Amino acid sequence: MGQGRNAIWLAERGWEVTGLEISGEGVRQARENFLTRRHRGAEEDAENFERRVRVVHESAEEFAIGEGEWDLIVGMYVHGVMLRESARVIAGLRAGGCLVVEGFHRDVMKMGIEGMTGGLLGYKTNALLRHYLGLRITRYEEIVGLADWRRIEAPIVRMVGKKE
């Protein structure tokens, strides 16, 4: 869930959101971000945050996703998780449920993006497609575009799939 940007956006549009976050600092920042936003002209309090966005302090690998539980699963910049947990993600979606994924393309390090260090980060070409063969893919693109979380130009992979 990180700072909660996507969880908050969904909650403000009426979704009941469960956000996975292993970091206590991430949860603190998400709460702070929620409280600084306005919803229907009034600031929400911490209690409303907890009702609208349920925070689960676990890793994705530990989380009991269940079977047929979710209308929407969003994986934003959690590259390895979406590949390692693909079978559980597919099982967790309800019939008609959607998966939305965005992340860096593996070539991100070759572009020398400021603040990105270490080895190659992101999805290899078609990696998501291979891991989510059980879904009907309604959108897939590998482009250079604005990264959701840093608003920088980068090689991006986006995918939307639906469980039939």
Task: Provide a descriptive summary of the structure in words.
The chain is an alpha/beta fold and 164 residues long. The protein has two domains: 5-56, no CATH class; 70-162, 3-Layer(aba) Sandwich (Rossmann fold), CATH 3.40.50. Helix content is 28%, strand content 32%. It has six helices and eight strands, in the order αβαββαββααβαββ. It has a four-stranded mixed beta sheet with strand order 5-6-8-7. A hairpin with a 6-residue loop joins strand 7 and strand 8 (153-162). The longest helix has 13 residues, at 24-36. The protein is globular, with a radius of gyration of 16 Å. The two termini are 26 Å apart. The model is unreliable at 38-42 (pLDDT under 50).
Summarize the structure.
By secondary structure, this protein is α/β, with parallel strands linked by helices. Helix content is 28%, strand content 32%.
CATH architecture descriptor of the largest domain: 3-Layer(aba) Sandwich
Query: Helix-strand pattern, N to C?
Result: HEHEEHEEHHEHEE
Fraction in beta strands: 25-35%
End-to-end Cα distance = 26 Å
